[in-house]
Amino acid sequence: MTLEILKVGIVSCSGEAVPGGTISRIASRMVLDELRPDATVTICLPLFIAGGQEERDFAATYPTITVDGCEKRCAQKSTEKLSGKPSKSLLIPEILEKQGIEKPTSLRKLKPEEKAAVQVVAEAIARAVDEILEG
Amino acid sequence: MKSTTRKVVVLPCSGIGKTYGALARETTYELVDRVRPGIAVTTCLALLVIEDPEAGQLIMTHPVITIDGCPKGCARKSVEARGVTPARTYQAINFYKAHKELKPDGIAELNEAGLKLAAVAADELAQVVDELAAGKEES
């Protein structure tokens, strides 16, 4: 018997100090709120430490996509260490480079080209969600 | 004369799911960018979760202010998990309780009232940053 996957978890890096983190947060919210609202859930990354067992079971409960804004890969590493192996791990600099989009520089008040980058990243996350749901 | 001013680390919750998380982050940006640039600094909270050595060193050698967006207190607990007691801890909802004319809304991006509230809160926290930068740790 195969169990149907109903929801995919998205773990975004918090990224307060790097422009890729801002792209990661906003793109993840776009997927959660607009692109795949019925198919996705999220958790604040630090809850793996600050929360209880329910939070730490997140990646065991949902197939999970981590979205990182820089090479330190905090979302991927903390999910692996504290919750479970992610189904997919996305890195924003890689996504943007593949699309020929320049690296973002803003932490807030995104420029028009950075808003376009958010859209590209959100679509990449949505595709990853679809791939997981389609098995 | 030797300056005694030091940096103060401001850490907001990561705030991916709640308006007050976004308010915490925007208040931090206001402090770091506009109100006390060069004195107030921040880092990614997630770096503490993965036990990044540089982020750990930063919070161990400077006074830390945490601003949390919900009662789960991720920012405060993430600092405490590294063996550091924050010099000051805040809940972003209390900024709204003190200024009920500014109702924040939005998660990815705050509404106008939320942005204004973040600016007001940062202005009010300036004195705290100055005290900590001057070495006055006791609240």
Description:
The complex is a heterodimer of chains A (135) and B (139). Chain A has helices at residues 19-35, 47-50, 53-56, 58-61, 74-82, 92-98, 112-134; strands at 8-12, 40-42, 64-68, 88-91. Chain A has a single domain, classed as 3-Layer(aba) Sandwich (Rossmann fold), CATH 3.40.50. The mean pLDDT of chain A is 92. Chain A is built from 7 helices and 4 strands; from the N terminus they run βαβαααβαβαα. With 135 residues, chain A is an alpha/beta fold. In chain A, 50% of the residues lie in helices and 13% in strands. Chain B is an alpha/beta fold and 139 residues long. Chain B has a single domain (8-130), classed as Rossmann fold (3-Layer(aba) Sandwich), CATH 3.40.50. Chain B has a 4-stranded parallel β-sheet, with helices on both faces. The longest helix of chain B is centred in the C-terminal third of the chain and has 22 residues, at 112-133. Chain B is globular, with a radius of gyration of 14 Å. Chain B starts with 7 loop residues before the first strand and ends in a 6-residue tail after the last helix. The mean pLDDT of chain B is 93. At the A-B interface, helix 1, helix 2 and helix 5 of A face helix 1, helix 2 and helix 4 of B.
If you consult CATH, what is the topology of chain B? Rossmann fold
Strand content of chain B: 5-15%
With strands numbered from the N-terminus, the spatial order across the biggest sheet of chain B is 2-1-3-4
Kindly provide the radius of gyration of chain B, computed on alpha-carbon positions and rounded to a whole number of angstroms: 14 Å
Main sheet attributes: strand count, strand direction, barrel closure of chain B: 4 strands, parallel
Total helices of chain B: the number is 6
Total number of domains of chain A: 1
Broad shape of chain B:
globular
Share in helix of chain A: 40-55%
Number of E-type strands of chain A:
4
Q: Enumerate the spans of chain B where pLDDT stays under 50 for 5 or more consecutive residues.
A: none
Query: Radius of gyration of chain A in whole Å, from Cα?
Result: 14 Å
Distance between the termini of chain A: 14 Å
Structural category of chain B is alpha/beta
Shape of chain A: globular
C-alpha end-to-end distance of chain B: 27 Å
The secondary structure category of chain A is alpha/beta
Q: In the CATH scheme, what's the topology name of chain A?
A: Rossmann fold
Low-confidence stretches of chain A: none
Number of helices of chain A: 7
Main sheet attributes: strand count, strand direction, barrel closure of chain A: 4 strands, parallel
